[in-house]
Write a structure and sequence with these properties.
Two copies of one chain form a homodimer. By secondary structure, chain A is α/β, with parallel strands linked by helices. Chain A folds into two domains: 113 residues, Aspartate Aminotransferase, domain 1 (Alpha-Beta Complex), CATH 3.90.1150; 244 residues, Aspartate Aminotransferase, domain 2 (3-Layer(aba) Sandwich), CATH 3.40.640. Chain A is built from twelve helices and 15 strands. A seven-stranded mixed β-sheet of chain A has the order 4-10-9-8-7-5-6, sandwiched between helices. In chain A, strands 11-12-15-14 form a four-stranded antiparallel β-sheet, with helices on one face. The radius of gyration of chain A is 22 Å and the shape is globular. Chains A and B meet through helix 2, helix 5, helix 6 and helix 9 of A and helix 2, helix 5, helix 6 and helix 9 of B.
C-alpha cells in the first residue's frame, strides 16, 4: 500500500469531524464541488415534506404565524451568525447574493456620506459583484475604481465611499486579509462590504471582532442550503439605524401589515428584507444548518487546511511534475478551502474526472477547481481524487 | 332546504371546472384566502421529493444541466405566459415581486429617455409598490406623483417617464381598465408597468394584445406556487433589447460562465434575471402550474364572476341589512376575483370565521377580504361561507 493511502487512513482515524459525514446523503463519488453546491444534508427531505404537506398543505395561510414563516429570515440569520463571528440580530436571510450586494453597496455609499463619490471594487472579483457594483455606482453618482485587494490600502482616499471585497477568490482560492483590509478601508473613512460566498462555513470570519461594516454571502456552498438557497446580509449593529436600503419592500417596514402608504423602516436586521421571502428554500436551509450544532468553526478550519495540504501533497506525489500548477497559495493564512490547479485542457480533464467519480469543476480558460467541505470530505477521498487525477493526466 | 343551497347545488352540477378541485390538497375548510396563499396542488409533494432527493441529493451539481435547473426561469415563464396573454419568450421567473417592481420601474424610466422625470404611481397601491417606486424615483432623479388609476389619463404629460399601476386593487378587489389606461399612458409617450399580483391566474390580462410594456406579478396567489414562490417579470419583446436593468447579475449575462469582467446583457427574457435562482421554490411552482394544462383562462374568469356574484347574493340573503357593505364593484368589468366587505370589528369577525372553518383575511382597519379561486372553490363553499358569516354577525 502506497504511503499516501496509509497517511489517509491515519488522518481519517484521527479526524474528530469524521462522524459528520453521516449527516449527509452521499455515495461513492468523491464530491469536491461543495464550493459550488453543497451536498444534501440528511435532515432536509423529511423537513421539506413537512413544510410542503403540513405547513403549506394543511395549515396554509396560518403557517405565516403558526409555523414561524414570518420570522424565518432573522431566525435563520441567527443560526448563520456564529459561523461568521456575528452576535445575534445582525443577519437577515433572503434574496440572491447579487441583490444583497446591491443593497449593501448602495447603503454603504449612503453611510459614507457627502463628498465621497468613488466605489472601489475587487478587480479579481466574481463577475456578478463587479456588474452590480457598476450599477450601484451609476445609480449613486459614483465612479467605479477596480483594484486588487493588495492595492486597496493604496487606492483608498478621502474620496472613497465604499470598498467591495471578496474574502476568498472564487477562482484561485486565495484568502484575503479581512482584518487588515477592513482596517485600511476604515482608516480612509470609507465603508467596507465583504462578500463571504467562499468563506462562510469554511473558515472563521470574525465579522464583529474585526469591525466589518456590511457583508453578504451565499448559503448553497459550504452551508449546504440547496440549489439557489437564499443569501444573507450582515449589517453591523451600530449601522443598522442608518442603513438606507435601495430596496425598501414591505417586509422591511416597521409595521408591514399596517399597509401604510409612507415607508418607515423597521429597526434591526429586518430592515435588510425586501419582499415576501421564498419559504420553501428558506426552510430547507434551516434544516441544512442543523448539522452545525456543536461544530466549532475553528475545528472546521483546521480540517480544511489539513485536507488542502494533503491534497497538494498527494498531487505532488502522484501527478507528473509540470502537468498541473497550483494557483492556490501555499501559506495557510492565504488559503481558503479550495485548491485551484492550472492545467492545459482543464475542461476535458474535468469531464474525465467526473466520469471516474471525482466531481470538481472547471473555470475557464484552464482551471480545475476542487472544493473541500470538512463536514463530509475525508482524507481517503482526497487521496483517491489525486490518484484519479494522475490517472486522467497520464 | 333554503333557496341558496339549492342554487349552489345546481351551479356546482353545471360547473365545468369542478373536477379541478381534485388536483389540490383540500379539506372541509372553506378556503377563501387563495388570493394570499394558494392551496397546495397535489402534484407538488412528490415533485419536491424528487427535486430534493434525486436532483439535489444524487445528481448534485450535474442537475444544473441534467435536471434543467439552469433554464427553469424562462421555461416556467413560458408556462405562465398563456395565462396572462403573452407569447413565449417574454417572461422570466425569479426574485420577489418587490425586486421585480424595482427592475421594471427603473428600466421603464430608462426606456422613456431624456426629458421625462416623473414617475406616476397608483395612490391606492399595495404599499410595497409605492415604497419601491419612491426608491426608483430617488435613484433615477425623478419625482414621484401619486394618482388614482382614474386620474391617470389626466396626470400623464410629456414629463411622465413611467406609470406603475395595479391591475386589481388588493384591498377592494376593483379591476382597473388595463387596455384603456395603457393606451392613455402611451398617448402621453410614457412607459407603463402593470402589477398583476391579484389578476394573474384569476382573469385574462392580454399583455400582448393591449401593448403593455412591462409587467410583474406574484405566483403564490392564484397560481398556487407556494409560500414566497418567485415572482415573474414580463418585458414586451420589442423592448427587450433596450431593457436596461438596475440589477445586472451574472445570470443575465450573455455568457454567464465566461466569467468576463465586463457586463454584456443576454438577449430575450433572460435579461431580466439577476443572481442564482432559488431552485426549490422555482420547481415547486413548476409542478403547481401543471394544473392549468388545458384550462382556458376565459372559463376561469366566467366561474370567478359567477362565484363572486353568488357570494354577494348569499350575503344579501343571509346577512342582516347594514351589517356589512361591499367595497367590491358590482359591475363585472370592474371586479377582480375577490370580494371585500366593510365590516365594523372586522378583525374579530375574521377570527371567528376562521374558528368556524371559513378562511379569508382581514385588512386593517375594517375590511373582510374573501378570495375566490375558481380552480378549487365551489358554489356550495360560497353558500356556506356566507351562511357562517351571517351566523358570526348575528
Amino acid at each position: 500500500m502506497s504511503e499516501p493511502i496509509l497517511r489517509a487512513q491515519k488522518l481519517d482515524a484521527a479526524d474528530e469531524l469524521a462522524g459528520l459525514r453521516a449527516k449527509f446523503v452521499l455515495d461513492e463519488v468523491v464530491y469536491l464541488d461543495g464550493n459550488s453546491l453543497g451536498a444534501l444534508p440528511a435532515a432536509v427531505p423529511a423537513r421539506m415534506e413537512d413544510v410542503v404537506r403540513r405547513q403549506w398543505g394543511s395549515l396554509r395561510i396560518r403557517s405565516w404565524d403558526e409555523s414561524g414563516w414570518w420570522t424565518a429570515p432573522e431566525r435563520i440569520g441567527d443560526r448563520i451568525a456564529p459561523l461568521v463571528g456575528a452576535a445575534p440580530g445582525q443577519i437577515v436571510v433572503g434574496d440572491s447574493t447579487s441583490v444583497n450586494v446591491f443593497k449593501a453597496l448602495v447603503a454603504a455609499v449612503r453611510l459614507a456620506g457627502e463628498g465621497r463619490d468613488e466605489i472601489v471594487v475587487d478587480a479579481t472579483t466574481f463577475p456578478t459583484d463587479g456588474y452590480i457594483a457598476e450599477s450601484a455606482a451609476r445609480m449613486t453618482g459614483c465612479t467605479l475604481r477596480p483594484a486588487t485587494p493588495a492595492e486597496v490600502p493604496d487606492v483608498v482616499t478621502g474620496r472613497t465611499a465604499a470598498v467591495l471585497l471578496n474574502h476568498v477568490d472564487y477562482r484561485t482560492g486565495r484568502l484575503h486579509d479581512l482584518p487588515g483590509l477592513t482596517a485600511a478601508v476604515h482608516e480612509a473613512g470609507a465603508v467596507v462590504v465583504w462578500d463571504l460566498c467562499h468563506s462562510a462555513g469554511a473558515l472563521p470570519v470574525g465579522l464583529d471582532e474585526h469591525g466589518v461594516d456590511l457583508a453578504v454571502g451565499c448559503t448553497y456552498k459550504y452551508l449546504n442550503g440547496g440549489p439557489g438557497s437564499p443569501a444573507f446580509l450582515y449589517v453591523r449593529r451600530e449601522l443598522q439605524d442608518r442603513f438606507d436600503s435601495p430596496l425598501p419592500g414591505w417586509n422591511s417596514h416597521t409595521e408591514p401589515f399596517g399597509m401604510r402608504p409612507a415607508y418607515e423602516p423597521a429597526a434591526g436586521a429586518v430592515r435588510g428584507r425586501v419582499g415576501t421571502p421564498d419559504i420553501l428554500s428558506m426552510l430547507a436551509l434551516e434544516a441544512a444548518l442543523e448539522v452545525w450544532e456543536g461544530v466549532p468553526i475553528d475545528a472546521v478550519r483546521a480540517k480544511s487546511l489539513a485536507l488542502t495540504d494533503f491534497f497538494l501533497e498527494c498531487v505532488a506525489a502522484y501527478v507528473p511534475e509540470g502537468a498541473v500548477e497550483s494557483l492556490t497559495p501555499v501559506a495557510h493564512a492565504e488559503r481558503g478551502s479550495q485548491v485551484a490547479l492550472h492545467c492545459p485542457g482543464a475542461g476535458d480533464v474535468m469531464k474525465r474526472l467526473i466520469e471516474n467519480g471525482v466531481v470538481g469543476d472547471f473555470r475557464p480558460p484552464d482551471v480545475l477547481r476542487f472544493g473541500f467541505t470538512p463536514l463530509y470530505v475525508g482524507f481517503a477521498d482526497v487521496e483517491r481524487a489525486a490518484r484519479i487525477l494522475a490517472g486522467t493526466l497520464s
